[in-house]
Every structure is written in C-alpha cells, then in structure tokens.
Amino acid sequence: MANQAEPALNAFVARIAETPKPVRWVARNDRMGLARSGMAHLPSPSLAREAWLRRTARLEHAYGVTAITHTTASANIMDMLADLVTAPIHPWDTLICTSTAVRASVQLQLDAVRADLEERLGATRAPSPNLVTIPLGVNVDDFATSAENRERWRRELELPDDAVVVLYVGRFNPHAKMNPVPMAMALERAARKTGKTIAWVQAGWSGSEAHDKLYHDEARRYCPSVLYKVVDGRKPDTRFSIWSVGDIFLSLSDNIQETFGLTPVEAMAAGIPAVVSDWDGYKDTVRHGVDGFRIATYAPRAGAGGDLAYRHANGWLTYDNYVGTVAQLTAVDVGDAGRALAELVENPDLRRRMGQAAQARAREVFDWRVVIGQYESLWDELNNRRLAAARPIAPRRDIMLNPRRPDPFLLFG
Predict the structure, then answer these.
(1) How far apart are the C-alpha atoms of 203 and 246, rounded to whole Å?
(2) What end-to-end distance do the CA atoms of the chain give, in Å?
(3) What is the DSSP code (8-state) at residue 130?
(4) Could you tell me whether strands 164-171 and 130-133 are parallel, antiparallel, or unpaired per DSSP bridges?
C-alpha cells in the first residue's frame, strides 16, 4: 500500500476494521509528521536503523520508536539486533518481543554483543534497549466455527461420519516450518492404539508442485492407517471456514523460526484443542493439560551448533538449509504425541472442555482488542517518559550525526 493516495489508504483501513478514532497519514519523507504524533511503530526489528535516521534529522527527543520481532534467526535480523547496542536508543524506545522465548534469545544476543565490546574496546556505556513481551493477536470472532461449514467440508473431503478430524494449517515446508513425518508417525500410533477412524486434513501450500508432491508422498508413507486429505489453504474462503472441520489441531514445529506461532492461537480461537511441540514460541500459547497438550521436544546442548553458525556466516549454508539443519537436529517425542492424540481421539468430552478453555484463553489474551490495548498502554508510557526527559546538550559540531551514512562530499571530497 506504499505511495498510495489517502482515499485508497482509508479504504484499505476500512476493509480491515472500523475505527472510531481519526486516521491521519504521515508521508514517508515527513519525519516532522512523526514528531507530531509522538510515537512511531515499525513492523520489523529495525529499531536501530530508525534511531540513526531520527538522530540525523535532529529529532531524538521529538518521538519515540517501537519495533517488533518476528523471525530472528536470519543473519540480517541478527545484525539488526546487534546494532541496538551501539545505536542512539533512548528510554522512550522499545523492542516488542512476541514471546518469552524470543525475548530471552534477544537478551542473550544483546548481552553477548555488550560483553564483546567491553572486552575488546573497554566500552562500558553501551545502552540496554527496553524489551517488553506482547503477543501477536487474532480477531477471535473471525474463527467462529459453524455446523454448516463443518458439514460442507466433511462432504467435500468425503469423510466418514465416524472420522475424528485432525487439522494442520500452514505452509508445507520441512525446511522453514516443520517436518511432517513426526506428525504422521504420531497419528499412525494414535490410529492403531484407538482403532478409531482418524482423518488428517492438511490445509496449506508449497512453493511448487514438485515440493507439494514430495511433501505429501513422504508424509502419507508414515501414516497408512490414517485418511490423508489435502486442502489448498490459499483460497480466501478456506482461510477461516476450514477450522470448522477440525476436532483436534496438530502442529509439531521443530524450527527456530517459530518465535511465536500464530496457527495454535487461531486453533484456540476456533475452540479446537491443540497438540503442539513444547518448542520456542509455542510455549506461550497452548497451556499443557488445559487447552491441549505440549509435546516434549529436544535439541542438542548449547554450544553444539557453533559449526552451523560458522558455515551459515560464511555463506556455505543457505538460510533455508541452516534452519532446516537445525530442525533436523531437533527431536519431537513421537510417542508422547501419539499418546496425547489418542487421548483426545477417544474422549469427546475432553476435546470439548479443552476447546472451550482454549477459546476463552484466546479471547482473554490473544484477541487484537486486548493486544492493541497493551500497545496503547506502552505507547502512553513511553511518550510520558519522553516528555519528562531533560533536553540534552546539543551534540558537538565535529561529531557526525550518523557516522554510518556520512556526507558524500565530506567522505569523498
């Protein structure tokens, strides 16, 4: 939507949701417009970059900045995080972390960079950026299920009346999302243990037809007793209606990219109990034994992956192969998952109780109305902090405002 006229931007906002508050647009090159608002929020972790740009415009006390983490495993994002330690960050700036797991990893990296600067350069005044934890959100009402959609999907997928439907929603990508084989193996164990008819509905997409075929051919091999159904998750109608067909949600992520994990929250919003890996951002969503089950997940001890980081840093491992290799060395307890699935398959009352608890939790913690309230409280706090701060002495004229982007006529003159 960049570079659009205001009517188009207003129409875009109206399609998302009605808002009783006035909407004012700030042009991309109008930093004084940000100063008039008092706060700027970035949909990425690029807080350090914005801090330097703000300083160059001599607006350090004019507005605060919040930024947000998503996947933090890539070299580019790691560099953004490391730059926070030397950027002109202020107490009215904050990096929002979407889970306790990603916050801990960000803090670890910042501490490591700070320790390195102190050891090599004697630096003792490296700033410590504010970190807060606010989850991603969903519009819970969008995921309301219906008997009509349930009946339609069961008919279209030709599911037997007695089938218990286990639903997966997401990309079909073993490198960047998760290996489907542990899920298939766990479902096969549950089917054999219970003797029940289990249907595995996979709603998602692949990068190509060849990848799609390989993914599903391999997954099918490991669950011959399970009805295997594939749905194109990219279709607009499927996005929300598919949740109506699910009795259980299954997602055994083994990937370091999953710093939050939105689909378990969507399942909770739909009132579906979830079986998920006890891994990364998933730890903050599904409550074990309440909303579903978190399955024991294991990774090598800290310090065992230095060679992977080194190979990726040298460009010998692509990013996809880097995160994929880490995932290959991460193990989800298939037996634990099979037992959890079997318990839910055999017990409709348990599914109903957990689904109700999950939906209540989604509405209480993850609905956008709640999450946005946390953002607004944070912005108010940071704005008050900025307004109460003493104005600094003007910087020395012989010090560049941004030594990373100097005047070309000075640099090359």
Answers:
(1) 11
(2) 39
(3) E
(4) unpaired
Q: Is residue 67 part of a domain?
A: yes
| Dihedral angle, C-alpha 211, 215, 217, 220, nearest 10 ° | -160
- Relative to beta strand 64-68, strand 198-205 is unpaired
Q: Give me the domain span that covers residue 382.
A: 6-137+369-389
My answer on whether 90 and 180 are in the same domain is no
The pLDDT of residue 1 = 56
**CATH number where 300 lies:** 3.40.50.2000
CA–CA separation, 43 and 68 (whole Å): 6
Tokens of 289: 């034994």
Region of poorest pLDDT, from 195-199, 316-320, 357-361, 392-396: 392-396
Instruction: Please compute the mean of the pLDDT values over residues 343-359 and round it to a whole number.
Output: 98
Contact yes or no for 345/196 (Cβ under 8 A): yes
Residue with tokens 């209606």: 241
Q: pLDDT tens-digit profile of 229-279?
A: 999 999 988 999 999 999 999 999 999 999 999 999 999 999 999 999 999
| Short-list 121, 234, 218, 111, CA closest to 170 | 234
Q: What is the pLDDT of residue 70?
A: 93
Amino acid at the residue 177: K
- 163 and 50 in one domain? no
Q: Are residues 189 and 223 in the same domain?
A: yes
DSSP string, 34-45: HHHHSEEE-SSS
Taking only the tens place, the pLDDT of each residue in 109-149 is 999 999 999 999 999 888 888 999 999 999 999 999 999 99
pLDDT tens readout for residues 31-54: 899 999 999 999 999 999 999 999
Tally the domains of the chain: 2
Domain identity same for 191 and 272: yes
E strands, 244-373, where? 248-251, 274-277, 292-295, 297-298, 331-332
